[in-house]
Write the structure tokens for this entry.
Amino acid sequence: MSTSLGVAVIGAGMAGRAHAAAYRVASTLYSPTLPEIRLVSIADINPEFGALAAKRFGYERTDSSWQAIAAADDIDVVSVVIANSLHREAVEGLLAAGKHVLCEKPLSDSIEDASAMAAAAERADSIARVGFTYRRSPGIAYIRQLIQDGTLGRLLHFSGRYWTDYACDPQGPMSWRFKGAAGSGALADVGSHMAYIAEFLGGEIQEVSGGTLTTVIHERPLPLGAVLGHDHAAVSDTFEAVENDDYAAFSLKFADGAGAIEVSRVARGHANSLTFEVFCENGAARYDQRRPSEIELFLNDVPSAQNGYRQVILGPEHPYVAGGLAMDAPSVGFGQNDAFAYQARSFLEEVAGVPESKSLPRCAGFEDGIHNMELLNAVAASAAAHGSAVRVNPTTTHKIGA
Ligand SMILES: NC(=O)c1ccc[n+]([C@@H]2O[C@H](COP(=O)([O-])OP(=O)(O)OC[C@H]3O[C@@H](n4cnc5c(N)ncnc54)[C@H](O)[C@@H]3O)[C@@H](O)[C@H]2O)c1
């Protein structure tokens, strides 16, 4: 095992800062099995964003390009956290330079680019992973455990929605999120997470139907300066067309179960409402990202006259929590930023050579990222064919979340 690992983050935006903070905290979680983690650089094309994030999260320096990170001898591990259409160039360059890469979801904005990235990962000696962060939410991991250990048993029906409202305001500035092919809007941005969770819990989705993609705000003003994440900013009076979906929905079939997913970026009042319900042979469970340290559970284990959903507060008896928080006592609460920390920890453990049996579950591979994109492409194809059923390519080389 190497004695130290140098870390960099490319992109100092909304999610880049979450990666930067996560690497900082990763070695403080669980037993001290990691080598020394050196927080080396944050690279952003906008020097102000990069410098601010580097200072805030305690990184040694700032760079302005992925090329500088690729060329740096003191960097081993890199998170790529920039617009989806920029992932390919950076990831290919970093892998060619021997860096271990954790790329944000969705893997790319086109299957062609994602396939090229997977081929580059195959050729590389270094590790390439994709960040489907929500699988690290203790509540989601616990519901999966209850399905797999038979407590809930086989999933019959999945109902998921990821409602956000970052695009409600028509004066909200144009950004990379509003450009791209059919399905690259809300479906790729937040639907990628929900589709991954559906398969994490229910196994591979085999068919989608009823695909709907709708744009409801058709143009947006150009910002006068740089915009970060979903921030509002001063805008000009020049408008550009919104190219992709504000709202998307589809039905899905597992090998032996069914369900539906609905996603939105114009759900006023729902800044980040990732919610789902699973109905299984022995009961049901509900998760709501707005209350991440609890789940609701319904089990057929009491007389029906007394039965109903019960609130289960998550704590050290549930996945990730024991040792995974500085204070890991019952009912202390935790949230989405902790999931980024668990993801960073898992990635660093794999890079450091900590055996899988002594590590957090490994991060998803690029083949999972391609499958996730193929699934979303099938939804776009269904929408283009007025909701017709479209088969999803089975994955051959892996099991989601294995
Ligand atoms: N896992 C999650 O929960 C989650 C949440 C949000 C975003 N994401 C993903 O993270 C990625 C970034 O999203 P975001 O919301 O942070 O975007 P953002 O717009 O907030 O930030 C992107 C940053 O990249 C910088 N940038 C642009 N071009 C660059 C280049 N060539 N080199 C270096 N920096 C460059 C920008 O200046 C900006 O600071 C996307 O792939 C998105 O899907 C994941």
